[in-house]
Amino acid sequence: MASSTPVLCIQSVEASKDHAYDISSIKSFVESNGLSTIPSNYHSLIDPLDREVADELGAFIPVIDFSFLTSDDPQFHGKGVQELGRACEEWGLFMVKNHGIQESLIEDVMKMSYKFHDMPVEEKSEFADKGVSTPIRCGTSFSPKVESVHYWRDYLKVMTHPEFNFPHKPAGYKELAFEYSRKTRAVVRKLLEGIAESLGLQPNAIIESTGFDSGLQIFAVNLYPPCPQPDLALGMPPHSDHGLLTLLTQNGIGGLQVNHKGKWVNVNPLPHTLIVNTGDQLEVVSNGRYRSVLHRAMLNNKDTRISLVTVNGPAFEKVIGPAPELLEKEEPFFRSMNYKEYFEIQQKTSFADKSGMNQIRINAQN
Q1: What φ, ψ does residue 316 adopt, rounded to 5°?
Q2: Burial class of residue 233 in the structure, from the number of CB atoms within 10 Å of its CB (0-12 exposed, 13-18 middle, 19+ buried)
Q3: What is the DSSP string of 187-254?
Q4: E strands within 66-106?
Q5: What is the C-alpha to C-alpha distance for residues 229 and 232, in angstroms, rounded to an integer?
Q6: Domains, the chain, ranges and CATH?
Q7: At residue 11, what are phi and psi to the nearest 5 degrees?
Q8: What's the rounded mean pLDDT across residues 157-181?
Q9: How many CB atoms lie within 10 A of CB 193?
Q10: Where in 98-216 does DSSP place strands (E)?
Q11: How far apart are CA 46 and CA 32, in angstroms?
Q12: How many CB atoms are located within 10 Å of the residue 264 CB?
């Protein structure tokens, strides 16, 4: 294994106290050790209250018909805009149907994503995570060098816009990812037009003010292996995303939970839908009206879960603040900040309670 590959040096609870494991992939660690318990520094669900779920609320997660937003019929379009605004305001997460991305493309990208994670650690070492600004980075947990508690996931994160980067293996993955990234950006662009309209702005207001057409897109593949004690660990802790909108699809294995009015809710997507959640930069642009949503990844002890995620944000060099049109009638809740600066702060700070947003809040009660 290349010496540049970041590792987690942890003590297995099943091993003797002087036996530590170097972990550069939780998938490889699980497959090679046959655990029945997990290392103690993966215990992140200590409080039983953290495990409580309001299952009955899952049925109320909004579903947006994308064809309404693209319709030339004013009545259908208006209905789509109204429902989109309500979903952003009340949930910060919704499903999108009739989005136009072929199911075969999603399935092919999913298969290639598993092939990437299934490669030996040595083969992936050239993509080892060297910092948040690295165009292609592969690793485990979230930030193992500074964490006291680790997370049960391996990841690939790639900056796919404004410049397209991608691993050169496995063969054919790069081409599929390019097409998928391009099509998800098109969906996000139309959603941002609808969101702008729902705020009483011109359709292109958010796109132009954030430099979206030259904005950052990160393509991420998260792999969560079966966990022998899923009631003790998390795949990802509660967090919000740094961009404007995040699109997610998964391999049919549940695990995503969203925090709705202080309660955790399982997200069980309908067939052929994309999951979309609001990010920190949308909260800023909307001056707090559409808040970024806290979500987390739960685990199971039987199946491997894979999620394909595209985080779509402003242009790195853009200074982002509340939309000027909104400030004609209300005070700003956020100070403006360069998006690259915010991105680096958010990636390096604690996930808990959207702590990155504390750097730019003007009103602590917002």
Answers
A1: -55, -40
A2: buried
A3: HHHHHHHHHHHHTTS-TTHHHHHHTGGG--EEEEEEEE---S-TTT--SEEEE--SSSEEEEEESS--
A4: 93-97
A5: 6
A6: 44-359 (2.60.120.330)
A7: -100, 120
A8: 98
A9: 21
A10: 136-140, 154-161
A11: 26
A12: 21
Rounded-to-integer distance, Cα 140 and Cα 150, Å: 9
224 closest CA partner among 309, 103, 313, 347:
309
Give percent of the chain above pLDDT 70. 92
Phi, psi of 108, rounded to the nearest 5 degrees:
-65, -40
Q: How many residues does the chain have?
A: 366
The pLDDT assigned to 352 comes to 54
Distance CA 280, CA 48 (A): 29
pLDDT band at 5 (very low <50, low <70, confident <90, very high): very low
Task: State the pairing for strand pair 274-278/245-250.
Answer: antiparallel
| 100 torsion bin: left (phi>0), alpha (psi -120 to 50), beta (else) | left
**Whether the model pTM is above 0.85:** yes
Q: What is the pLDDT of residues 58-111, one digit of tens each?
A: 999 999 999 999 999 999 999 999 999 999 999 999 999 999 999 999 999 999
User: Could you give the count of Cα atoms lying within 13 Å of 310 in the half-sphere of its Cβ?
Assistant: 24
Asked if the peptide bond before residue 271 counts as cis, ω within 30 degrees of 0, the response is no
Name residue, tokens 């994160």: 157
The owner of tokens 């642009």 is: 285
Would you tell me how many other CB atoms lie within 10 Å of the CB of residue 7? 18
- Give yes or no for residue 348 having a pLDDT over 90: no
Reading the block at residue 82, the tokens are 């109204």
| Largest interatomic CA distance in the chain | 69
∠ Cα 273 279 281 (to 5°) = 140
Q: Are 310 and 161 in contact (CB under 8 A)?
A: no
